[in-house]
Every structure is written in C-alpha cells, then in structure tokens.
Amino acid sequence: MPKNLDEAVLYFQQHWTKKELKNFQNKPESDAVTELHFGTGMWIRNNWVRGDRDTALRNYFKGLGIYAPDDISSIILTSLHRTLNKKDIELDKQVERYKAYWQPIIDCNKKQKTQAVSNYNRFKEGDNITIYMPVDTADGSPNAVLYDCPTPEWSFDKSKDLILKGTITKKYFINDTANVFFTVQVNYLNRKDTEILMTTVNVDDKKDFSLTGLTIE
Fold it and tell me: Do the beta carbons of residue 136 and residue 155 sit within 8 Å?
C-alpha cells in the first residue's frame, strides 16, 4: 500500500496497462478524474483510505490538512493525470482548493454547535419550546427539514413552514457534550400534513430533536 502521493501515483503507472494510461492521459483533466470517481476513485477510497488499514497514506494526507476520502482520491487521480502529461502536479494549490471548500463548512458547524449548546443550557426539562423548521415540497410531500452548512440560513414563510410547540421532557447528549438533544412532547403543529425529517409526527407524540441547526425559542 502506498505511503504517500508519489507512491500512489507510481502504483497506477506500474499496474495500469499502457492503453489504460494513454486513455486516461488523453482526456481533459476534469473529465478524466470525474469519470473515475466511482470506479478507480472508489477503489482508492475503499482499499487505501477507509476502514482498519495501514494509516500511513491517511496520515500523509492528514498532514496536508486533507481528511475527506473523496478529496484524497481526487488528488491522487489529478496528480496521476498531470504526471502522465508531464505537468507540475501543483500539490499546494490542490490542497488549498479543498481547504477553501471545507473551511466555510467547518466554521458554520462550529457556530451551529455553539448555538446548540447555548440553547441546551437555556432550557430545562419541563419548559415549553417553539420550534421553527423550513418545509421542502420538492417531491410533492411536505417535509420539514434542516439545511446543511455552509448555508443553513432561511427565512420563515408562514404559508408553508412548520411551527411546532411542545414541552421538553428530556435533555441529553450523545458521545460529545456539544452533540445535544431535546425530547419534546408535541402540543401543537401548525401543519398536520407535514412530516418532520421524513417521519410522521402527531400532537401528543414525543419527538427527539438534535439542537444543531434547529431554530427554537
């Protein structure tokens, strides 16, 4: 198993046929890498990155600040393509591009966790709470959702979005004190035709809510 990027690139130079290398080399870089994302890219992720395996390659990329398996496989394939075409692999620029992608998400997640803990500490069991959630109707069935980072912001639309009022019956966290939850006894729903995170919820039900990204008052 390769221990660094150079060894990973060399592996394919040694194990692919001349025809495979030539076909990959002759395609535009973006097309070549994208087309192999679910083929060779998945093989890289499953055999070199994921699971209980030799950690040398993962540690190499962690040292660069790259953690996502998809990013690792893409950097390897991009570097292979550039090597075959006698181009500078520009590893620093590749790394910075992925870091630039992830940084807003990391910052957003940190902000959401801080707000979640603040809300967790602000309420106690027995308190009444109001939850607001955006409703997605894209597939024809209304479903209250949470928007992912880095753009979780939304504006409440009273014509379609969800208001849930209830009583906190339990507070707890899972694994991490910032991964906080409320169990809520549902007392009121403004939209009874709307699922919550693809689950049917009715008045008098108890529903567990992660506080991460949840709008409450």
Answer: no
- Annotate 66-115 with DSSP letters as a single string: ---HHHHHHHHHHHHHHHHTT----HHHHHHHHHHHHHHHHHHHHHHHHH
Domain ranges of the chain: 5-89, 122-216
- Per residue in 78-106, pLDDT (tens digit) is 999 999 999 999 999 999 999 999 999 99
Q: What's 199's DSSP letter? A: B
pLDDT digits (tens, 9 = 90+) for 11-54: 999 999 999 999 999 999 999 999 999 999 999 999 999 987 77
Say if CB 168 and CB 129 are below 8 A apart. yes
Q: How far is CA 83 from the centre of its chain?
A: 30
| Of residues 134, 131, 162, the one with CA closest to residue 146 | 134
pTM above 0.90, yes or no: no
Bridge partners of 181, per DSSP, are 172, 210
